[in-house]
Amino acid sequence: QVQLVESGGGLVQAGGSLRLSCVASGIIFRFTVMGWYRQAPGKQRELVATITSTSTTVYADSVKGRFTISRDNAKNTVSLQMHSLKPEDTAVYSCNARYSAEYWGQGTQVTVSS
Fold first, then answer.
1. What phi and psi values does residue 79 have, to the nearest 5 degrees?
2. What span, in angstroms and rounded, lies between the C-alpha atoms of 106 and 114?
3. Which of 58, 59, 79, 114 lies 20 to 30 Å from 36 when distance is taken between CA atoms?
4. For residue range 23-41, what is the model confidence (pLDDT) as tens digits?
5. CA distances from 7 to 29, 35, 71, 106 (A)
């Protein structure tokens, strides 16, 4: 059974930083494309960043230069380091895994106050 468990969300002031982590189990992590998506109230879910098995990364234009995605295959963990947070970054952030199928974590709330 595949499980993705996120942690690290919370409330932060604009300009601050947060680090999200997602621990995966039940998958061959090192072969899996991992990603972070977010959904703000009243909006569709959107890609934040992805990282492939060879650590190739893709970022949404809105987070380039502020967010960094990374992975630790020894710990089955993908992380999202977020700096210079803005109120518009407020959303539920979800971890995503893609290999033979697609899996989602339960999400973690990030709230950025102005």
1. -125, 155
2. 26
3. 114
4. 999 989 999 999 999 999 9
5. 18, 14, 15, 10
